[in-house]
């Protein structure tokens, strides 16, 4: 997991071939003007924009998730978002099998820690990072960039 400010995003371009594409997009786009929805940025790089009220830690924990085929770059555009995190290797309570089509598995485990992002900050979740996003009060606008592995 990596946490930083968007203005520093370019320094992570070397970590994955499509990170440059993702961060070039994030740094050159009027993020506040993005409409809610899903769209392709480039081959292997997809985006999901949401703008909704945050939820309790308990509600977010119901979707404590990780992925096998994608790395998430989750950017808080507006609001304050708290997220739960735990290493996948420490999770022992899967809720069902891995869903290949949706690239997700959920866990009943509890996060080891919580951290918060404000507008202009991002987190990179690798497949070993189990996460519970969207914890907060009031509206949170965010962009999740899915980078195929």
TrEMBL record:
<protein>
    <submittedName>
        <fullName>YhcH/YjgK/YiaL family protein</fullName>
    </submittedName>
</protein>
<dbReference type="InterPro" id="IPR037012">
    <property type="entry name" value="NanQ/TabA/YiaL_sf"/>
</dbReference>
<dbReference type="Pfam" id="PF04074">
    <property type="entry name" value="DUF386"/>
</dbReference>
<dbReference type="InterPro" id="IPR004375">
    <property type="entry name" value="NanQ/TabA/YiaL"/>
</dbReference>
């Amino acid at each position: 997991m990596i946490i930083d400010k968007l203005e520093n995003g370019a320094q992570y371009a070397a970590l994955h071939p499509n990170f440059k594409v993702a961060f070039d997009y994030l740094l050159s786009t009027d993020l506040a003007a993005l409409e809610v929805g899903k769209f392709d940025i480039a081959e292997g790089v997809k985006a999901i924009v949401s703008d909704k009220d945050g939820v309790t830690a308990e509600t977010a924990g119901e979707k404590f998730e990780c992925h096998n085929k994608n790395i998430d770059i989750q950017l808080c555009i507006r609001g304050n978002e708290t997220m739960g995190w735990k290493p996948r290797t420490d999770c022992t309570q899967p809720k069902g099998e891995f869903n290949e089509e949706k690239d997700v598995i959920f866990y009943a485990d509890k996060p080891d820690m919580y951290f918060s992002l404000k507008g202009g900050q991002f987190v990179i979740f690798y497949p070993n990072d189990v996460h519970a996003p969207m914890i907060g009060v009031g509206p949170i606008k965010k962009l999740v960039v899915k980078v195929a592995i």
